[in-house]
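Feature request disguised as a bug: please show the residue count (564) next to Glycoside hydrolase family 35 protein in the output. Example input:
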Amino acid sequence: MSSPTIPYLRKTKTSSQLIVNGKPFLMLAAELHNSSLSDAEYMRTVWPNMKAMNINTLLGSVTWEMIEPVEGKFEFAELNKVILDARSHDLHLVLLWFGSFKNALSTYVPGWVKTDIKRFPRVHVSESGAVTRTEELLSPFNPRAWEADAKAFAALMRHLNEFDAKYSTVVMIQVENETGLLGDSRDRSKIANKLFKEAVPKELIQHLQAQGSSLHPEFHKRFPGFQTLTAGASTWEEAFGKGPDSDEMFMANAFSKYVGKVAEAGKREYPIPFYTNVWLNFDDPSQLDLQGLPTTVGGGATAGVYPSGGAIGRTMDLWKLNTPALDFISPDLYFHDYEEVCRQYTHQNQPLFIPEQRRDEKGVRRVWLAYGSYAAMGCSPFGIDSVLEIDSSVTRHYGLLGSISKILLEKQATSPEDVMGFYFDELSETTTEKTWTRTFGEFKVIIDRAFVFGKAGAGAGLIIHQGSGKFLLVGWGFNVSFKSTKAGATFTGILHAEEKTVDKDGKLRTARVMNGDETRSGEFFIMPNDDPDYGGFPIAVTIPARTMIAECTAYSVEEQEEYF
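Example output, currently without the count:
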């Protein structure tokens, strides 16, 4: 019997929050390299660094070959050691099930699966000259493969229920990894070719048509005439067009059903939150944030260059239909427009979790946007165990986020519209300067890069509207100014400002009063960098960052004619 306090998702106003041990939990997460969690001895060199970097949750893989090296004989001894050590360091885990699929291949299945191609047939792809090639990828059309995977995954979840339910060390599960097919837009095996010529399942067409305007925007963009189809009378090509589009939807249906069967088997054993992750595609290279890197790192523009059949925007609603045991779908976000991907993966108010992203300063500062504007449950820089510097980007950002997590979680749950995250990258010849704005109550809030006489630095943070013109400011490297939305307002300024500290219970305490010079006489409030560049100006007019938390109150006046 499962514990009544196992991790679960609780619906909020526009999303969901992860509840651990009965309380909302903000994951300050990071992902290990793929092999790290397989060895408890190695992980004993890692745990202290993770704690020192202010991480509270680690993502790491559990592979099918690791727990079932011999069919029907399950081994959990090494995993148990890892879980116990994580628990002793007060760290949580998100386990990544590398079962049948990892990065659009089947490289983590046991040897007895790899070598038995009669029982577990492979996907075939076309090469030039119509020659087919066998891939190291299990066919998603083969029930024996998903049955074997589901059996192993169910055994894992049953074990976690027995071993960890009372402690909630493991808080979530990722089912498979970046599922799909590389090298071709669809499987060209005999069984796949036969099924491709058959009609699209009637229930699939009916479900998608019933969604109407709530279907994912990327689906509407790619298939604008879909509402006119007759359910049950259309082949894949008739429904979705000849070529890669119909191939991709065909593969998405197959892969999602497969993953759905595996997830369902595990959920029956231990119903903690489940998700799967996605290798992103791109339609327009200008949407990518490449910094001089080749466009190939962006995932790919055609199905088969990125994994065909994965849960990208236009296939997401199909995936959601076929995987009811998954609680949400997550993007692996490295080189795409960060905000656009956050929008796409909060589709229909599903919670946002970013299981893989860049671990450098540029990548980590973007988490403020996810946590602030999109109520993210967590973000997870990849390859964290090979970061040896304790004083890293992750340490600084997560330390500040952790200090205000109680306040942020409350706002995410009750009034997410009162929170806004943002960032500013280092200035360069290619930097496009951006002003972030949003209206809260009667004030338009304007956020710019922090002013200095020398070279302005990078920045990141969030603001929380507390009502009656009062705002909590968290972060560094930005200015905040206000403009009244009242038609009759003739002046808007800052009434009062204070630097804040946070005590061990997450409550704010007043430190320095910051009126006058620190608000430029009420014009704007500066959240400075650690070491502002004075540019040779002899007067130190900008103070360095200290607590990086402040509270200021905006006000406006409405003057009558007689005042002029």
